[in-house]
Design goal:
Helix content is 35%, strand content 4%. The protein has 3 helices and 2 strands. Helix 2 runs antiparallel to helix 3. Residues 70-87 have a biased composition (Acidic residues). Residues 15-100 are annotated as: Disordered. The chain crosses the membrane at residues 105-123, 129-148.
Length: 166
């Protein structure tokens, strides 16, 4: 037999046994029973025993009883006790950067020129030739000013290392 035919035979066996169910009992499992995952994992709460800033006992933790364990006084009616989680509260965002007058004028021209043309067309105002040219020039000028002022270099506070530069 050639190596290719051996591989073909093994492949046929794999395909033929694809839909077969595994009939193993727990004695045939390749891992110990202690590593089997329970159907519903128990929940536990870990709280520090003392204030971490006090210096004594820092890093020591006391493990609370598992929720739903026998002898739990809080669980009289069969419901799980409500967890007291604070959740994550993000810090307030930093203030927006101050925009200089040139940038404000450029943004106003970028949106103001087309907005004027749109409003004039919707309201059926008569458009003078100089007004149309001025609106288009404001749009193009605002765009050019914003692109020129954009800059393509790294920020000034990035330090000496630019990271991965390709």
């Amino acid at each position: 037999m050639t190596p290719q035919s051996d591989e073909d035979e093994v492949w046929r066996q794999i395909v033929a046994s694809f839909n077969d169910t595994a009939e193993r009992d727990s004695a045939d499992q390749p891992w110990p029973d202690s590593e089997n995952v329970p159907a519903e994992p128990s929940r536990r709460v870990v709280k520090p025993t003392e204030d971490p800033d006090s210096g004594s006992g820092a890093g020591e933790f006391a493990r609370e009883r598992y929720a739903g364990e026998a002898g739990d006084e809080d669980d009289d009616d069969g419901e799980a006790p409500a967890e007291e989680e604070d959740g994550y509260t993000p810090p307030p965002p930093p203030p927006l950067p101050k925009v200089d007058v040139t940038t404000k004028i450029a943004w106003g021209a970028l949106f103001g020129g087309p907005a004027y043309l749109l409003v004039a067309a919707m309201a059926k105002w008569p458009l003078e030739g100089w007004a149309v040219i001025l609106a288009v020039a404001a749009f193009i000028g605002g765009f050019v000013v914003l692109v020129v002022r954009m800059g393509d270099g790294p920020p000034n506070d990035s330090g000496w290392d630019d990271g991965a530069v390709v």
